[in-house]
Design a protein that fits this description.
The complex is a heterodimer of chains A (about 300) and B (about 300). Chain A is mostly helical and about 300 residues long. Chain A is about 85% helix and about 0% strand. Chain A has 13 helices and no strands. Chain B folds into 2 domains: about 220 residues, 3-Layer(aba) Sandwich (Rossmann fold), CATH 3.40.50.300; about 60 residues, no CATH class. Chain B contains 8 helices and 11 strands. The chains are: A mainly alpha (about 300), B alpha/beta (about 300). Bound molecules: adenosine-5'-triphosphate and magnesium ion. Magnesium ion binds next to α1 of chain B.
């Protein structure tokens, strides 16, 4: 009651101004708390990294860890510097990265297109799905990296054999996700689109595809790392350039630091691709409530 | 014509109604007599256990041009199934469904359908959702968007064009669904409990709005509801269905004057009398349905 009469005395605009003031105070407190939390997390992350790498380095120096087998951070760093400055045994470092990246990228793109096409086809055609189901499941249960020697024999030591391996690895992941995504399309939405006048193509483009996209995009995160695995394993088996070959050479010459350094490079490439795919996801799935796509590590 | 009139013999009678003659009011006697006609329609579903479940049995019903017909019955009796048969989303197991004198084959552009559950497209914003129908039907984009804006304003959502469905309240989404349906200017309007998710005030507003839209479109409406008050307030005829398998138990002509104000008509003595009469019929079916639900749980 008193608050009400108070507002009547001071007039509406005064009350509104006060409310706004209170609002901005709450907002400031909230953003302040969030900023402090971010800062703390970043500091702790850095600390964790320093402890881990410092411990590793110290361990090797105190003789607790044998650097010949397990490498040593300073050695890895030196190896990286050597590669960047003087190039690798197969040529400049950036060429090796470019070769592997290109193989992975082509494998990824071809695998994604094939996976989506077959996934949508079988997801929409129950007859085909039932007919081919057992064969696809059987093919999926084969450990597919074992195909690498076969591709090396059939397609040679060039990039084709690596692309083929990457395609096979990516295809099944994307295929199963696209298939499931198409199967999960809300029947109500399909019915609604038909009532509103959508023809078959419109039904596909406006309802089935956007609905399955959630599943497909989720699969892209894992598929790119698999494409990278395909390219590198292909290079292990037989190649004349690429990061896989660098790892192979380092291993053959008992250069543990070299293996770790190459791994670090691969990790950086994978991380970059992850950033690109996440940006793509944000764009394509703008319509979704943020809660799902915001959970990132 | 001043009081309610029972057109149908008691429920024990095997043939509940003969179509066509069911419409006594002079308002419907000109031109063709029925827009929708169900003749002895039976619908069976195959349950996951492999048995057959009868949802509708020998259901006969006729709706005249421009008529507002309410379907009411206990939950699970087959109301939504009836609508999906009229809409051409499903086919009857026996009997015939006629729309505008022709047997139903697939969906019909003259029919609009507001679904019981949310069926707006989550990946389209309000504007694209409402414009979907005209765009599917090949209207130029500019014109479709223009009409969509007009309809969005009409259902009170102006300013929300850019929002995605998950950013709207349940009542707002329902209004998007209404605009999405009305923009196609259907001659037949099927509505499945369109207002059951709304609060009482919004609901009354929307009911009045619906009556206005209906009289402007001069469409025939089949309106499914649980709520007897709503049925009487809106409809020309109320059709009581039996607990599943559904068949027509009784048809009541609602001769309350139009235009009606939904909020006020509930206090009309004739309304009260109609409510009492129909409730007598409906109560038995609701009890049957309730007993069954209790037994099966
Ligand atoms: N595809 C289906 N397969 C098997 N049974 C079904 C199927 N669709 C509906 N049914 C059954 O048919 C009966 C009628 O369903 P329907 O959806 O028409 O009920 P309703 O009257 O609309 O109920 P409510 O008022 O709760 O919406 C229900 O018992 C339901 O279980
Ligand atoms: Mg229903």
């Amino acid at each position: 009651m008193s608050e009400r009469s108070n507002r009547l005395e001071h007039g509406e605009s005064d009350g509104a101004a006060k409310a706004m003031e209170a609002d901005s105070a709450i907002l400031a407190a909230l953003t302040g708390r969030r900023r402090r939390r971010r800062w703390l997390i970043n500091a702790l992350r850095l600390l964790l990294l320093v402890v881990l790498i410092g411990g590793w380095e110290l361990g090797t120096r105190l003789g607790l860890i044998d650097p010949f087998f397990w490498g040593r951070p300073s050695g890895i760093w030196q190896q990286l510097v050597t590669w960047v400055v003087h190039g690798t045994a197969q040529g400049p470092l950036w060429v090796q990265i470019a070769v592997t990246l290109e193989e992975a990228l082509f494998g990824f793109l071809i695998g994604v297109v094939l996976g989506i096409s077959f996934g949508v086809l079988l997801g929409r055609n129950a007859f085909l799905a039932e007919l081919l189901g057992p064969y696809i499941k059987a093919a999926n249960s084969i450990p597919r990296v074992t195909l690498a020697p076969l591709f090396a024999i059939g397609l040679g030591l060039g990039s084709q054999s690596k692309i083929a391996l990457a395609v096979v690895l990516v295809f099944f992941i994307v295929f199963f996700n696209a298939f499931q995504g198409v199967r999960e399309v809300d029947r109500n939405l399909l019915a609604n689109a038909r009532i509103l006048g959508a023809n078959r193509w419109q039904l596909f483009r406006e309802v089935i595809l956007p609905s399955a996209l959630t599943w497909i995009i989720a699969s892209l995160h894992t598929s790119f790392s698999f494409a990278l695995v395909g390219a590198v394993v292909g290079e292990f088996v037989g190649s004349i350039e690429g990061i896989g070959l660098m790892i192979q050479n380092a291993g053959a010459t008992f250069n543990a630091n070299g293996v770790f350094a190459a791994m670090l490079i691969l990790a950086a490439v994978a991380l970059l691709s992850e950033i690109v795919i996440t940006a793509l996801e944000r764009r394509l799935l703008r319509w979704r409530p943020t809660a799902l796509s915001e959970v990132t590590l | 014509m001043q009081h309610s009139q029972r057109n149908v013999p008691p429920a024990s009678s095997p043939t509940p109604c003969s179509p066509a003659q069911e419409v006594p009011s002079a308002r419907y006697s000109k031109g063709s007599t029925t827009v929708i006609e169900l003749r002895q329609v039976t619908k069976r579903f195959l349950t996951p256990g492999g048995q057959s479940y009868t949802a509708l049995r020998d259901l006969s019903l006729a709706v005249a041009p421009g008529e507002f017909c309410a379907l009411i019955g206990p939950t699970g009796c087959g109301k939504s199934t009836t609508l999906s048969l009229i809409a051409g989303l499903d086919t009857p197991s026996a009997g015939t469904v006629l729309v505008m004198g022709e047997e139903v084959h697939g969906t019909d552009p003259r029919i609009g359908y507001v679904f019981q559950t949310d069926a707006v497209f989550p990946w389209k914003n309000v504007l694209s959702n409402v414009a979907a129908g005209p765009l599917f039907r090949g209207l130029p984009k500019r014109e479709a968007l223009e009409r969509a804006r007009a309809w969005i304003a009409r259902v009170g959502l102006a300013g929300f064009e850019d929002r995605y469905p998950h950013q709207l309240s349940g009542g707002m989404r329902k209004r998007v669904a209404l605009a999405q349906t009305f923009i196609n200017e259907p001659q037949i309007l099927l509505m499945d409990e369109p207002f059951s998710a709304l609060d009482v005030q919004t609901r009354t507003l929307m009911e009045n709005e619906l009556l206005q839209l209906w009289s402007a479109l001069s469409a025939s409406v089949v309106f499914v509801t649980h709520d007897l008050e709503e049925a009487i307030a809106l409809a020309d005829r109320v059709c009581v269905l039996t607990a599943g398998p559904a068949t027509v138990k009784g048809i009541y002509t609602i001769d309350l004057p139009r235009p009606r104000n939904v909020a006020e008509i509930r206090f009309d003595p004739r309304f009260v009398r109609l409510y009492h009469d129909i409730w007598e019929d409906l109560r038995d079916e609701v009890m049957i349905s309730y007993e069954r639900a209790k037994q099966s749980s």
